Amino acid sequence: MRAACLAFTAGAWWLQQRALLMPEEAALLLGASATCLAIAASRWRRGEASRTRSIARRAMAVSAAFAIGFAWASWRADQRLADALPRNLEGQDVVVIGTVAVLPAIVERGVRFEFTVESVETRAANGKRLTVPEHLALGWYAPRAGADASDASLPHIEAGQRWRLTVRMKRPHGAANPFGFDYEYWLLEEGLRATGYVRPGADDEGAAANASANPSAQPGHERDTQQSATDSRTDTKTRKLADFVWSINHVIERARSRLRDRVFAILADGKPLHENAPYAGVIVALIVGDQRAISQSDWIVFNRTGIGHLVSISGLHVSMLAALGAWLAFAIWRRHPAWCARLAAHKVAALAGTAVALGYCLLAGFGVPAQRTLYMIAVVALALWMHRMSSVSRVLSIALVVVVAIDPWAVMGAGFWLSFAAVASIFYVTAGRFEFAEADDTWRDRLVRSFRTAVRVQWAVTLALTPLTLLLFYQVSMISPIANAIAIPLVSLVVTPLSLAGAVMPGFIGVWLLHAAHGLVALLAMWLAWLSAAPFAVWTGPAPSAWAFVCAMIGVVWWLAPRGVPSRWVGAFWMLPMFAWPADRPTIGTARLTALDIGQGTAVLIETRATRVLYDTGPQYGARPTAGNDAGSRIIVPYLRARGIDRLDAMIVSHNDSDHSGGALAILQSLPVDIVRSSLAIESAIVRASPQHRRCNAGQQWTSGGVNFELMHPLPEAYAPHDGNAPVKPNAKSCVLRVEAGGHSMLLTADIEKPQEAELVERNRDSLRTDVLLVPHHGSRTSSSDRFLDATNPSIAIVQSGYLNRFGHPRAEVLARYAERAIPVLRNDADGAITVTLAANGVAIERYRERHPRYWYGR
User: Fold this and answer.
1) 3-state secondary structure of 713
2) Assuming Cys at both sites, which of 160, 164, 193, 514 could form a disulfide with 244, CB separation 3.0 to 4.6 Å?
3) CA 564/CA 598 separation, integer angstroms
4) Which of 481, 512, 516, 526 has its CA nearest to residue 495?
5) Positive or negative torsion for Cα 186, 190, 192, 196
6) 542 neighbors 474 (Cβ within 8 angstroms)
7) Does residue 836 contact residue 740 with C-beta atoms inside 8 Å?
């Protein structure tokens, strides 16, 4: 059974690595055939079965389980992908009626929520209703820049409400980078097949006009104007139709909302939450599983100290509450002999524990760690009721299959593997190794025994999760055992019960309990911040190879083996390849340039044998600078860590524009940067934060690792005082960089426009030719002049622009100029990260979505 459960999980995982899905009929046929094979294997008579026959029977069962897992995951994926937004509706205004499905999230300038569509009011010209996905991820934002969710123009959104909304949607799309978060996969797992935002001010005629002349429409997307025309009789006024629509899910989500609001109101006490209760988000996360109010700075501390798993509804919390519920039920039931005569007290306790676990999991949002614990508790309870207690490994295997069967996409989540690995490691080091109490033991003996067991378990979990943590997050907390030794009992046994009791207790008792829980979290956070500040707190390294990871897991199993296994210390040597894995570097005379997929903006990592240079730092996401809300924190720094890059030799910030400089401060705070070159003003925050700063000036050159770098713009005069004349625009001062290796080159042009292109042509008539061109200004109509393209004459052009961006970049007329010259144009929004390798033997191009195809891309 254990092998079959693992094989089922492996089949579901293998499906998530595929570029294409099998047809639905083929998936059903494969599943049916595998089921028949499994039944045949289970009924194979053993009789005088030889060892060979026994092995064959088990191989049949495992193979059948793998095929069933693969077919099941394929069928589920096919069903979910079928609920798609037609491409001709992207960027158009559509009127829908539906309900707010889950607990909304308060964000900058508004609120985000999941919306379940009940009907579509917008009709095509022929009278037919348009089709949109059933589940949408929507945002509702204040119209004023700098406003927040309390803006008077925004309504109060709660789960269970029914609304008529005018929405503008697009198909699932996210950044596609090596080692990066796959937003499209996450949307698929959540069942959200379109994203968008509410347009409360749109009327039906205006909606149709905006739909047909949408400035954010992706160039090249043809639209059927007849089908997209809106029926003028449709009422598109945005309004709330019902305050609550009854369903079990809405009841649960409304309860979660009420608890969250109550906790925030009590802890804020009429003052700004970040001032009066900076850790209120942690309390809410422990009660209802909503982690979105925890600040980015706190997450950094929690992750550096390795206690991030506690700031959520973890399996430990579910187990603790289930045990408490079971104990109370057992204590009450056993006091009534008549009740016990009808039903054994231990059965009632098992039922009560399962019910408490289920209730808490529903309240907490039903995350994977909570699911895993719930299913394990349910399996144990069922075994007690049926008098068929099973081994812990079988219980864990059944829970594994249940989780994967319900959510086949969970196998790609870090929480899934960390959760099951932690429990498996605890079982591995405790099964059959308990120190049983003696009759004459004192309380000191029992305390010492409990302490030894706790230390052994903590050591096992830390060691077992180290390879997984390095594989998934490219860093390992070295102080995690110390931090968890205090945090686990404090959070699980004190803070969580206080928080839950305070959330439901009325009057001053609830207020006091919540403030007590918050005070304890604040003290814990202070201690963790002190711990995380240690220079040895975190070890970072490049993402290891598959074989290094397998060797490390063999080492873990060997090292944690029971006493009697010879040379357990050899396990440490099996783990060394994972920690000694070298960072990848180009050869001498070769340059590797990676144009990262960061949305509407620019970020290019340039690598030589000797140096790493970052050209621009991507955009700031949102209207206001917020910690963690920029390309530097979300994409660039994680990518650098996964590559084993722990410092930058130089960072070039081409000019003062948020889509080029938005991530600079986050990068400067995250890793050492030797020198920053830019065209920014001296008083800029980026310049002030730089350890060493130099202005970009045409003619600056340097060589590193056999690769030549040359800045070709701007001229020094661009920085001169304007003396009453119009100052030089930031775009006009963009740092233009030429990288040459092996006789081939790439020209990085930032946001220069036609006047600057003309200057470059005049100054470099005979040396502007390049193999690869980073298209100026993301393909704006103000750039890529005919004269400039003739002078550069690139073999390949690359556009860094966001999917369906509001500027309409790259413009159709600009793409036409490249097409006239037969210059292929690669795009981050279509190709993901694009890597260019310049070497003596030519220019090599690698596109991430092509190299790493998955069935959900573009679906």
Assistant:
1) strand
2) 160
3) 53
4) 516
5) negative
6) yes
7) no
Token digits of residue 133: 């996905």
Q: CB–CB of 351/333 below 8 Å?
A: no
E strand or H helix at 95: strand 93-100
pLDDT in tens, 617-655: 999 987 666 667 899 999 999 999 999 999 999 999 999
Q: Tell me: the pLDDT tens digits for 427-466?
A: 888 765 555 555 566 767 777 777 777 778 888 888 888 8
Please, are residues 113 and 100 in contact by the beta-carbon 8 Å criterion?
A: yes
| DSSP-assigned beta bridge partners for residue 166 | 95
Q: For 555-585, how does the pLDDT look when each residue is reduced to its tens digit (9 = 90+)?
A: 999 998 887 788 888 889 999 998 888 888 9
- 106's tokens: 């308060």
| Range 209-224 burial, b when 16+ CB lie within 10 A, else e | ebbeebebbbbeeebe
**845 contacts 818 by C-beta, under 8 angstroms:** no
Task: Provide the 8-state DSSP code for 123.
Answer: B
One-letter identity of residue 200: P
E runs forming strands in 588-646: 591-595, 604-607, 612-615
Q: Provide the token pair at 266.
A: 């009590």
CB 384 within 8 A of CB 348: no
- Contacts by 842-850, CB closer than 8 A, 24 or more apart: 842/744, 843/744, 843/771, 843/772, 843/795, 843/796, 845/796, 848/176, 848/177, 848/178, 848/597, 849/176
User: Does residue 282 contact residue 491 with C-beta atoms inside 8 Å?
Assistant: no
pLDDT at 51 (0 to 100): 67
Choose the weakest-confidence range: 130-139, 457-466, 826-835: 457-466
The 3-state DSSP class for residue 174 equals coil
526-548 residues labelled b (16+ CB within 10 A) or e (exposed): eebeebbeeeebbebbbbbeeeb
- The first and second tokens of residue 798, run together, are 């690359």
How many Å apart are CA 809 and CA 301, to the nearest integer?
A: 38
pLDDT level of residue 215 (50, 70, 90 thresholds): very low
Residue pair 437/450 in contact by the 8 Å Cβ criterion: no
Structure confidence at residue 582 (pLDDT): 83
Between the alpha carbon of residue 646 and those of residues 385, 618, 640, the distances in Å are 55, 19, 7
> β-strands 604-607, 842-847: how paired?
unpaired
pLDDT value at 138 more than 70: yes
Cα Dmax for the chain: 101
* Token output for 219: 């160039």
Helix (H, G, I), strand (E, B) or coil at 737: strand
Lowest mean pLDDT among 80-94, 447-461, 690-704: 447-461
Asked if the peptide bond before residue 810 counts as cis, ω within 30 degrees of 0, the response is: yes
Number of neighbours of residue 196 by Cβ within 10 angstroms: 23
| Count of C-beta atoms within a 10 Å radius of residue 812 | 11
- For the entire predicted model, the pTM comes to 0.88
In angstroms and rounded to an integer, the radius of gyration of the C-alpha atoms of the chain is 30
Residue type, 83: D
HSE at residue 740, side-chain half, CA atoms within 13 A, is: 14
- Least confident among 100-114, 184-198, 771-785: 100-114
Can you give the pLDDT at residue 291? 85
- Residue burial 63-79, b: 16+ Cβ < 10 Å; e: rest: bbbbbbbbbbbbbbbbe
Statement: residue 204 has pLDDT above 70 = no
627 CA to centre of own chain: 16
For residue 601, which of 747, 711, 728, 751 has the smallest C-alpha distance? 751
Please count the other Cβ atoms lying within 10 Å of the Cβ belonging to residue 320: 17
Tell the residue number behind the tokens 């001053």, with chain if given. 508
